[in-house]
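FAQ: What does a ligand-bound record look like?

Like this one, built around cytidine-5'-monophosphate:
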Amino acid sequence: MTSDKNSLRPYKDWIFNASRAHRSRVIVAIDLFDGPPEKIFNASNRLLAKTIYNLCGVKLGRQTVLSLGRQRTQHLIRLAHSNDIPCLIDDKLNDIGETNEAIAKTYFQLGFDGVTANPFVGESGLRPLFRTAHRDRKGIILLTFMSHPSAFEGYGQRVLPKGRTIPEFQYRLFARQALKWGADGVVVGATYPRIIREAKSILSGKVPIYSPGVGTQGGSLEEAREAGTDYFIIGRSITLATKPDVASANFARVSFGKDQVRSVR
Ligand code: C5P
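The answer part, i.e. the structure of the complex:
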């Protein structure tokens, strides 16, 4: 499959199809950055070669892209594409609209298929980003509730939305906005299954939930799956495993549970 053919499909459909084809809801998070670029590249390459059949997506951290540089990054993206799976950049864009759009365009020109963004910047901070991304069939994944212990301080605060008299949890507003703005996914940490459940009911099956935080951060894949997670973002529990092929295969198997086809399109 060439990247030309890949680029004809919207990101959201592509990852859905990849997930069914590989029988996996696992996106591997490659966050390597220590050491010379060639070493990071070789390690990433080896990791993908061992795990790619157990994945529906690849996510590169910004630190990895900065360490690898343009050409090596493109090589990894092409490796994912040649196995018909999309590649995300996790930059959590958090700037004014024009800057978010410019950063995303640069990532898309490199070959990335989707980018994460922070809805704290509000509609005008995201509108140009959505416009650019969707014109090119790329994906925008919005943070809704992070996976780390202090996520409550921001995403979990109660706020008074404009024109309303009753306070509302920030993450609930973000989930509603993701639905309204046509996001291709939202991030809710696997460490907070109760919030996954709430987000699932707000999103009414229209926006998939991406959950990082499985394993190393303490989240349980099974609990998140039962709460409604559609895709699992898993880093160190695969990348640092003695046998990443076995670890990724196990996560892939459990990621579907009994239901082999449930996933939001
Ligand atoms: O190694 P681990 O499985 O904890 O990696 C999780 C990945 O997901 C990391 O790249 C981390 O930056 C990212 N992430 C997260 N929590 C969020 C959003 C992204 O852990 N809310």
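Follow-up question: can I read anything off the structure? Yes, for example: The chain has 13 helices and ten strands.
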